[in-house]
């Protein structure tokens, strides 16, 4: 059995990864060793019948270098500290990562096997040892529009995202709930005779005050939104927006870059990211043809009929969270150009957008 180290299992992505691995009985075929950056020496708080019951130090290079495979869901800061140290001492194991740090390395592959399985296999055969999960919205976009990309039909793509608080990590998700709690206290006295605008004024006044919980987001997310995710880069994009074109083209291994751009927005949902696409096709397609191409690409994507009832019941974070399915709807031709379509997709960014490609990459390596 291979020794597989898990770092970052306590975070949101790591917890979902463990949940999925337990459900799929993946732990039966590995010897799992759990690491921590904050609770070294403590007992592992769950039972998966692994040999080592104690949390190991995630900075201990000697123990890490004894492993066959490392999966890190800890974040870029950790990967940037540890990955190169391990490679420099000659560690030749497989490194699987959820963070963005290694995605732009030339010797890394961004993994999303329903999209690029053959490319991943080719790279394993070539001796590549570093496999990284893609940005959550990029992976979810490719899972939903995979058929159009596969048939090389997309000339360019513009996207507006609606990203959940959990996309930023555990502490941000908790803060959104604290913000909601704060607001709900102010609105406690709602009854039939309440003037709703008085309550709104009270909330609006209070969410910009200093005692409103905003240590992580810096500003209110509950009752508001934040049209900025990640740091600024030089061309006016945020890093999150930059990833759209770079990562998509790296995953698809395109010869000619498919232009992709848009605006990434954090909204006050807990889990699951939504995206609104404007798609310029290279050729004219009927609506039905386009839907067939999208639907037939993989078993998780699900075309939702463009009517109110199907849309509001199936195409929302509330309908999707915790599920692997990727609904896509609101598919229509746009007035602005005969080859332009719009579509709207929702997906659980903790599943296909993060944990699931990593879990499947581990399985692939174990069975290879
Ligand atoms: P996270 O929830 O903040 O967890 C990361 C680590 O933070 C944990 O492993 C834990 O490490 C520590 N931590 C500190 N306070 C914590 C708390 N209150 N609850 C749980 N853990 C806490 O981060 P994440 O969202 O899982 O993201 C991990 C990596 O995946 C990041 O690089 C992120 O960019 C990437 N990613 C995230 C998503 C997403 O939707 N969240 C999607 C795709 C990729 P110790 O146990 O060692 O203390």
What does this structure look like?
38% of the residues are buried. The chain has 12 helices and 13 strands. The strands form 2 sheets. It has a 7-stranded parallel β-sheet with strand order 3-2-1-4-5-7-6. A 6-stranded mixed β-sheet has the order 9-8-10-13-12-11. α1 crosses α12 and α5 (136-150) crosses α8. Helix content is 37%, strand content 20%. NADP nicotinamide-adenine-dinucleotide phosphate (NAP) binds at residues 8, 10-14, 36-38, 73-76, 98-100, 136, 166-167, 169-171, 349-350, 353-354.
- Mean pLDDT, to the nearest integer, reads 96
Shape field: globular
Task: Give the helix proportion (percent range).
Answer: 25-40%
Total strands: 13
Q: What string gives the helices and strands in order? A: EHEEHEHEEHEHEHHHEEHEHHEEH
Low-confidence stretches: none
Instruction: Give the amount of beta strand, in percent.
Output: 15-25%
Lateral arrangement of strands in the main beta sheet: 3-2-1-4-5-7-6
Largest sheet: 7 strands, parallel
User: What is the tally of helical segments?
Assistant: 12
Give the helix/strand class.
Answer: alpha/beta
The gyration radius over C-alpha positions equals 22 Å
Instruction: List ligands, each type once.
Output: NADP nicotinamide-adenine-dinucleotide phosphate
Gap between N and C termini: 13 Å
């Amino acid at each position: 059995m291979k020794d597989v180290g898990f770092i970052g299992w306590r975070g949101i992505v790591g917890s979902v990864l463990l949940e999925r691995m337990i459900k799929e009985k993946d732990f039966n075929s590995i010897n799992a060793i759990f690491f921590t950056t904050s609770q070294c020496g403590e007992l592992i708080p769950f039972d998966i019948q692994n040999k080592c019951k104690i949390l190991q130090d995630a900075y201990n290079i000697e123990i890490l270098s004894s492993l066959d495979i490392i999966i890190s869901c800890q974040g870029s800061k950790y990967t940037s500290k540890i990955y190169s140290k391990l490679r420099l001492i000659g560690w030749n194991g497989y490194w699987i990562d959820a963070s963005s740090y290694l995605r732009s390395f030339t010797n890394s592959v961004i993994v999303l096997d329903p999209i690029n399985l053959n490319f991943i296999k080719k790279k394993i055969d070539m001796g590549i040892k570093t496999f990284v999960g893609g940005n959550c919205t990029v992976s979810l976009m490719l899972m939903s529009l995979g058929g159009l990309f596969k048939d090389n039909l997309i000339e360019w793509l513009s996207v507006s995202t609606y990203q959940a608080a959990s996309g930023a990590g555990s502490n941000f998700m908790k803060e959104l709930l604290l913000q909601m709690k704060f607001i709900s206290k102010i609105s406690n006295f709602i009854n039939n005779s309440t003037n709703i605008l008085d309550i709104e004024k009270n909330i609006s006044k209070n969410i910009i005050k200093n005692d409103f919980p905003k240590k992580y987001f810096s500003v209110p997310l509950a009752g508001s939104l934040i049209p900025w995710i990640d740091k600024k880069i030089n061309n006016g994009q945020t890093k999150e927006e930059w990833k759209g074109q770079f990562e998509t083209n790296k995953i698809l291994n395109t010869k000619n870059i498919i232009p992709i751009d848009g605006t990434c927005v954090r909204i006050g949902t807990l889990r699951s990211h939504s995206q609104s696409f404007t798609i310029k096709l290279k050729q004219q397609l009927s609506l039905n043809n386009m839907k067939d191409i999208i639907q037939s690409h993989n078993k998780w994507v699900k075309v939702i009929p463009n009517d109110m009832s199907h849309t509001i019941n199936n195409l929302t974070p509330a309908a999707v969270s915790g599920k692997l399915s990727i609904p896509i709807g609101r598919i229509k031709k746009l007035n602005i150009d005969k080859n332009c379509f719009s579509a709207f997709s929702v997906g659980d960014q903790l599943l296909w957008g993060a944990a699931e490609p990593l879990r499947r990459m581990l399985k692939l390596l174990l069975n290879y």
